[in-house]
Amino acid sequence: AAGVIQSPRHLIKEKRETATLKCYPIPRHDTVYWYQQGPGQDPQFLISFYEKMQSDKGSIPDRFSAQQFSDYHSELNMSSLELGDSALYFCASSSGTEGEKLFFGSGTQLSVL
Amino acid sequence: AQKITQTQPGMFVQEKEAVTLDCTYDTSDPSYGLFWYKQPSSGEMIFLIYQGSYDQQNATEGRYSLNFQKARKSANLVISASQLGDSAMYFCAMREGTGTASKLTFGTGTRLQVTL
């Protein structure tokens, strides 16, 4: 079965650079979530989209923005990167027809040097 | 207050034995869902099992079962017949309400090590 696809798998950036993370949800899933997991931490919710509209916002810095496109894929844009942004970024998707289950992608490991 | 509490930072279990990973939760919402995810060292977050607050029976998925005690607000994960490949970090998570795109809140995780 198709899973959530995230790209890239690994990303290395310098301080103050920008980064774009992409997420392709499971086909027919209409909701996308972004999470940030620092080293040794539990995942922290950043933002979610339902039917291309932002539906909830968590601890997402103002330097970050995200959107969901007409094909339901989502992108997380990160600007003015800081060392503390180094983390594993997960995308998850869900669908009302599959009940409450959220399925995660393999994550993008971002390293800011 | 912590919404999800996992009090066991680390657990050891011998291969072929059963192990219980503890999870308690805190919510005033009558409708919620409880999840367990496995995160191996490779980093991906793997869905294991789900329990809805209105589900009458405990959820089971293969070797995984969820011991749901609503009055105690606990949702412990039981892994039967442990395998070496079960060694990983395990996260309990909760989703409150039935609103569209309601987010998951995670516990701090339990690192399980399966030994020979």
Descriptive overview:
The complex is a heterodimer of chains A (113) and B (116). Chain A has strands spanning 5-7, 10-13, 19-24, 31-37, 44-50, 53-57, 64-68, 74-78, 87-94, 103-104, 108-112. Chain A is mainly β. In chain A, strands 2, 4, 5, 6, 9, 10 and 11 form a seven-stranded mixed sheet that branches. A four-stranded antiparallel sheet of chain A has the order 1-3-8-7, with no helix packed on it. Chain A is globular, with a radius of gyration of 13 Å. The termini of chain A are far apart. In chain A, 38% of the residues are buried. The mean pLDDT of chain A is 93. Chain B is mainly β. In chain B, the strands form three sheets. In chain B, strands 2, 5, 6, 10, 11 and 12 form a six-stranded mixed sheet that branches. Chain B has a four-stranded antiparallel sheet with strand order 3-9-8-7, with no helix packed on it. In chain B, strands 1-4 form a two-stranded antiparallel sheet. In chain B, a hairpin with a 6-residue loop joins β5 (32-39) and β6 (46-52). Chain B starts with a strand and ends with a strand. The interface between A and B is medium-sized, with 27 and 23 residues.
Q: What does the secondary structure layout of this molecule look like, with pairings?
A:
The complex is a heterodimer of chains A (113) and B (116).
Chain A: E1 5-7, E2 10-13, E3 19-24, E4 31-37, E5 44-50, E6 53-57, E7 64-68, E8 74-78, E9 87-94, E10 103-104, E11 108-112
Parallel strand pairs in A: 2-11
Antiparallel strand pairs in A: 1-3, 3-8, 4-5, 4-9, 5-6, 7-8, 9-10, 9-11
Chain B: E1 4-5, E2 10-14, E3 19-21, E4 24-25, E5 32-39, E6 46-52, E7 60-61, E8 64-69, E9 74-79, E10 88-96, E11 104-106, E12 110-115
Parallel strand pairs in B: 2-12
Antiparallel strand pairs in B: 1-4, 3-9, 5-6, 5-10, 7-8, 8-9, 10-11, 10-12
Hey, which two chains have the biggest interface?
A-B, 27 and 23 residues
Would you tell me the overall average pLDDT of chain B? 93
User: What is the alpha-carbon Rg of chain A in Å?
Assistant: 13 Å
In percent, how helical is the residue content of chain B? under 10%
Question: How would a crystallographer describe the biggest sheet of chain B?
Answer: 6 strands, mixed
Largest sheet of chain A: 7 strands, mixed
Secondary-structure element series of chain A: EEEEEEEEEEE
Approximate strand percentage of chain A = over 45%
What is the 3D shape of chain B? globular
Our count of helices of chain A gives 0
Helix percent band of chain A: under 10%
Cα end-to-end separation of chain B: 38 Å
Residue-averaged pLDDT of chain A: 93
How big is the Rg of chain B? 14 Å
Instruction: Work out the oligomeric state of the chains in this entry.
Output: heterodimer
